[in-house]
Amino acid sequence: MRASSYIATAASNFCRRRCNNYFWHRCTNSSSSSNSNLLCSIYFFSNTANNHDGDGRRLGGRSSNDSEMGNKNTKLDDAPIVSTAHVQHRAKANIPYNHNHNGRLYNSNYDSRTHHQHRHTRTNQNRNVKSSSSSFDDYNKLRELESVITSNHSTSSTTTTTSSPHSSNFNKRLSSTPPRDWSIPPQYPRRSNFNTNNSTAGGGNITQRIYASRSIAQLIDVVYLEKDENNNRNNHHNQVNDRSNNVESVDAISPHVLIKLWEKLALLVKDSSTAPEIDQQLLQKEGELNHRLATILNHSINALPQCHPGQVRSIAFAMGTIVKAIGSYSTTTGHHRQSGSRGGGEGNHYGKNVDQIMILHNQLVKSNSAILFWNTMQHQVLQLSIDNFRPKMLVSIAWSLATMSETLRKKDPNRNSHHQSSNGNTNPTLNVTPFFQALQTTFHKRRTEFSSKHLGNLAWSTMTCRVNDNSNSSILHDFANEFISRRNNDSSWNDDDKGSGLRDDDEDGIDPMTLCQWASSYAKAGHKDEDLFRTIASVAIPMLMEQKFDMRYLANLAYAFALAELPSSSSSSSSPKMMNDGDSVGSSASASYLSALFDTIAAASMEKLPTFTTQNFANIVWAYAKVEHPHPALFDGVAKESIPRLRDFSSQELAMLAWAFSKFHSDQHPETNLSLSPSSLSSEIIFDRIAEEVSRRGLKSFTLQGVAMLAHSFATVGHTTNTTIWDAIDEIITTRQRELGNLECSHIARSYAMIGRRSDDIFRGIESIVLSKVHQFKPSGLSSLAWAYATLGYDVPDLYVAISKQSLQCLDEFNRVDEVMLVLALSRIDLPLPDIRDQIFARSTLHLSEYMSLDLFNMLIFYVRAGYKSDHWMEAMANEIIHRSPSTFPPKMAVSIAHSYASVGCRNPALLNYLLRICQNRLEELEPKEAASLAWSFASLEFFDRKFFCALADSCEGRWHEFDAASLATMAWAYATAREDRPELFEGIMDASIVRVDDFSAQGVSMLLWACSTAGYSNQRLFHSFEEAAEMVLHECDSQSLANIAWAYTVAGFDSGTLFGPKFIAIVAESFDAFNHQGLCQLHQWSIWRKNIGSDAALPPHIEKRCYDEFRTHRIHRSKLQNEIISELASMGIRFDEESCTKSGFSLDVLVDVNGTKIALEVDGPHHFVGRKLTGNSMLKHRQIAAVDGISVVSLPYWELNSLKTSDEKQKYLRLKLGLNQA
């Protein structure tokens, strides 16, 4: 045994010098004894020795004169897989090593020359190599011992496992997973028609000729050129195989040469702009070039089953690279696929090689052979057992499959994975599911062999291939869990020792590119694993702080997180012309890591902004706008750097830039702190410059999506001054209407509605598109379309009904913003659609807490406009509003909320106090209309907060000239109703109203005159000024307005000779049935006044009688003060009558007879006064009782009565009022 061991050691040392160390360790790693080492040595030596022919020329591998590690470029992935078990299998099976007629050794079932040939390509076949006879002598000696050692090994009952110290790293990799079965190498059947000399045929130049090719046509032509110079070579070569003289027969090309061919082709395709056309004649024969390429592709398909893992990987990767380059170019024009040409120009990146690229596209993407190639390659991977592929190989193969799958999906969906043709097409399809299922299985067994970089690449491939939903989700879930567990497992990750989480046996790949790839892959796959993204953020933030990200990865990381639309980020936009109240930004712990990440990205980007590309600018601002994370400094910096370079932006990048800046425009968020938005200067400048650039290059280079983004951006910021842009948008949309997609339809319609721009042709076209496929629109599209058409006032009942029906079917898919926008639209049309309205309101009651404050506000507005009234719903809404921070409702919104509750007469003191707190310190911010509306709301709900009304009056002082006619009338009405004695306010209102007298509507005239009369400000100049205006609007007045005008002039005592003529009488008679109790009473008082002054104008008798009867039928309400007065009068022994009615129809509180004189005592409570002055109604009553009935009226104000504490004080007070003390 010692001798055997010695011989084995010597053989091992000898063979290790003759082969790659890595290869040797791989083969001896699992050897169980020194005998096995010897067998492995014999096997290796035989495969080295048999690569020499009888003349000493080496046909494969290194010669004896080569350096020991001469081939330093050999890829470990391509190393052949051999083991002692394989050698033992040869010995046990008695497989002989035969000599061919050239003296070469080969196995009839296994051709090692073909197997190893790709690793040892010679550059000069003619170099004579000294024959090493000692090598053959050593080989023969070792061969004689083989049978003895094999027999000893086979009879051994136990074996001792030994391991070379050089294999420790390899063992460590496999320590936690079952070892791969290297014992039986893949069997690659020998192909007798492979020309094993073609790597050196033609003067040893075929590989060099491939590398030297400078055009695609020349490269394809290389493998067909006849090698005439071989005719002068040694004759015995011609005896071996006639095809060694040339490679005119493509079937003679070995896998190794095929790899070099495809790799060179990939290089040419990727950098074809620098390659001149060399073979013009061949290019003219497009059919010949096409045929040759097809022949090579078919041979590659046939050669795949003879390839080992490294070769499969190399061919797949080269083909994937070619397909990716081809996929970047249009299939019809050969132009580079861009979202828009830069600077408005269009160029041909490929120059003269366009025709060649198109031939490649037809053969390597569109043809059946191309699909067959990828299916065959995938089958070969599975046949060789995917466990025999190193992770790096699997990454390359997966990337190649993904690239082909993505290209097919863009060019020919019916040929893509999982897109079977529905038209009976029998063409082959690419189905990558088996590969990814096998990949998932091998990952479970070998997970520690995969670095995070590997997993990130595989995640991208899985996402891109869109493996069937269940499998896709499962694989991505496994990868994500592995990534998260590694970050959380200290034993797998030791940042202090390894740095950045790198493992000791491979580079785990935690670098900026890997993090971006992880985030992007899962975002695009729609796999919203918040734990994964939080983990990625936790890894990225320290690296960002260390400035490890360059400009590309800064933009890409932000873009990926924005694209993910995580639940914690705001993924839905606000309603038109409304701002996001910020409820969801930073409102939860889950949003904190996003906020921290985006703040860190912004900080890291500031210094690098000058190095950003245009795409980086577009991506990063788009991301911040998408997640609604404002960062003014970043946006100002981007504006500063990008404005001088706008001509370099592609059309799509311009659209993205405009959209992002529009999201944070100050006009879009008037209620927020403007410090959250980019400076108004930079924002205005960039939109002006973008508008100029778009006008310069036109919209032809923009996609329709880009046009829609531009329209939305300019509409959002209200940029309507540049009519050239909008005219161009009109033209491009009108021209390409049939190409509009669902998103473009909704976005363009919404943009036009936001700026109030009507275009009948465009909207008719959009209506036609929507009606034809309304079921394909998403909730956001349905709500935007409804809102746009309703806002612009289009009468399209068919469209509204279609949208309503489709919305009912998918109402569960509506988010709160979509619901609100839809109800806003429905509130603006006169079409009864109760089903959708009822459903939305029923749903909203249960989910009020889920609405953002803005959407809650909009829902309330629509509820009131739609005429709904549910005390339960209004109370629930009020409670939800109160529980939110006052900062979420700016004063403008508070005004509208108050108006809504006042409109339905729902008085909620807690809500009104809440709204009062919002507004009381910010009254100066209110516009005149808003101030009037707030005053009207509080007065209507009888919420009379004296401090508030005083503060509001003070805020309006000196601004009455800014109020329009309606606001002036409303303010006067509110203060009169609130019984606020504000002489300066009423004087200011009356003066401003006289100036604007011609602007008043019928209702405005009525409200103003009634308010001034009620408040006791019967300014004769005011009534004289409005005499003509009132007469002009009489025909527009409703019954209440007519009554108010008549009553106001009666209180003022202003006799108008023209206003109350036959025209007024006729209008009153015509609308008499519409008068309510209050109106009839007012007409009665007017009639009394007209008779009293001797006017000829009088109401018809039947109307006059009806008014008199209505005036007398009023309810009697005795107040506490009135009862006290009656009691004291009785104690004093004075005769009196309670609630007596006069001849004119007035009811008197107490009628006292004092010495034969009748005196009416009127107990006037707070409602009879404006301040301490009698209201117009009370003054008119006293005046008319005295004038018509001849009864003196004595007013007993409530504040005087309240000051009397004892009965004596009260009786003394009454005697004084009745004049009894003087009697």
TrEMBL record:
One Pfam family matching this protein: RAP
Domain RAP: 1159-1216
InterPro entries hit by this protein: FAST_kinase, RAP, RESC6_dom
Compositionally biased residues, Low complexity: 150-169
Biased segments, Polar residues type: 97-111, 190-201, 419-431
Region described as Disordered: 53-201, 409-431
Coiled coil: none
Protein name per UniProt: RAP domain-containing protein
Organism for this UniProt entry: Discostella pseudostelligera
